Amino acid sequence: MNLTDRVVIITGGAGGIGAALARRFAAEGAAAVVVADLDADAARAVADGLGPVAHAVGLDVTDEEQVRALVADTEQRYGRIDLFCANAGVTSGGGMEVDDAGWDRAWRVNVLSHVYAARAVLPAMLARGSGYLLHTCSAAGVLTSIGDAPYATTKHAAVGFAEWLSVTYRDQGVRISALCPQGVDTPMLADGLAAGHLGARVVAASGAVLTADQVADAAVAGLAEERFLILPHPEVADYARRKAEDPDGWQSGLRKLVRRLRA
Length: 263
What we know:
α1 (16-27) crosses α8 and α6 (187-194) packs across α7. The protein has one domain: NAD(P)-binding Rossmann-like Domain (Rossmann fold), CATH 3.40.50.720. The model has no long low-confidence stretch (mean pLDDT 95). The protein contains ten helices and nine strands. With 263 residues, it is α/β, with parallel strands linked by helices. The N and C termini lie far apart (47 Å). Strands 3-2-1-4-5-6-9 form a seven-stranded parallel β-sheet, sandwiched between helices. β1, α1 and β2 form a beta-alpha-beta unit. This is SDR family oxidoreductase. Its EC number is 1.-.-.-. It is an enzyme of class 1 (oxidoreductase). One of its GO terms (molecular function) is oxidoreductase activity. Belongs to the short-chain dehydrogenases/reductases (SDR) family.
């Protein structure tokens, strides 16, 4: 996808990867960039920094009616939606002990929000035979997330849903990509480190933390090539191969890493 003159929606657009995507898409010449976020004021600040090309919307991605309203308003305002970036995400920092409310929040934000977006935008995209969905899924959806059971589980589900969409709709003109970065210097990582979450410590110790702008660069390159898996950290592809070839050895290596960090 060439982003010039495209109409784009980005959820979770007020910070981190979402804000970086908004800036990069605007720089690429997008016709409109809709910055949607639960924090409407922060979304407005990002949009204001991009000039008249951008529009900010307060949005709870777990409310399907709000997602439908956002899509309808954008189509009425700009005539179409070329690219929908389902980027909002949450972590928990916990394991099985995370309560049902925490598991439900992870499921609704990390998975169901992608379902709601697809339900809302696909009819018009399929009718005209073109469109693109970019789902931020994380390398946790390809590998795992040490110390965060809800995140690992729901991100796997997010990759699975994106893959299903691609298999089902690519031949009808709709492209789907799963953006799967590993460590990224965002408020999510900073908050995890401040809380002492094991997963955040693993990421920080890896020495491969990218900036959000670097992830946005990788996303633009992946969209241009219409790749399903967009891996800003290329080593994730090697890790995934090792995991597939030797699951027991892969898990053994992760357990050693956990023991070292806990020591």
